Amino acid sequence: MDKINVDGVLLTSLKKIHHPKGDVFHGMKKSDAGFSGFGEAYFSTINYMDAKPWKKHLRMTLNFVVPVGTIRFVIYDDREESVTKGNFFDVILGVENYQRITIPPNVWVAFYGEGEGYNLLLNLASLEHDPSEVERKDELHEIEYKW
To answer: Which of 10, 63, 74, 92 has the largest count of CB atoms under 10 Å?
Structure first.
């Protein structure tokens, strides 16, 4: 398991169950660590070698799963009272590293398409989308990190 150095971020191993007619990929149960309610589930894609720049949800907990392709996530903690203020956490998720990452409110997240094919992300969010509870940066370089 990767060392998580951002307070509140969780990595949870998920089951892949092989079936000759098609595999089953677990996502989340309400009894799982990281579950903090259900607001909506949505899918997002990221192209190979493209990045979706930094955003920070103010109230929403994110639960990202990558059932197709490979996506790199970087989380940055700038919370004033956090014991991990100034820390980054970097992880690559996909079928070969099939885990769910739980990202608490008030930390920054950006992601990058590592897989050469189709890269698909599922977010099991604690709240419905509300544009008033998210902050965004337009460019990756607005938070200094070596990608």
So the answer is: 63
Q: Residue 2: CB partners within 8 Å, gap ≥ 6?
A: 11, 89, 91
Which domains occur in the chain, in start order? 10-129 (2.60.120.10)
d(CA 73, CA 66): 11
Residue listed under structure tokens 């590293």: 97
C-alpha to C-alpha distance for 143 and 124, rounded to whole angstroms: 25
Which segments within 81-133 are labelled E, that is strand?
Answer: 88-94, 99-103, 108-113, 120-125
Instruction: Give the tokens for residue 43.
Output: 């899918």
* Count of Cβ atoms closer than 10 Å to residue 141 Cβ: 11
Residue 115 to residue 81: CA distance in whole angstroms: 36
Strands 70-76 and 62-68, by their bridges, are: unpaired
pTM over 0.90: yes
- Give the separation between CA 93 and CA 18, rounded to whole angstroms: 19
pLDDT digits (tens, 9 = 90+) for 111-133: 999 999 899 999 999 999 999 99
Asked if residues 35 and 108 have their Cβ atoms less than 8 Å apart, the reply is no
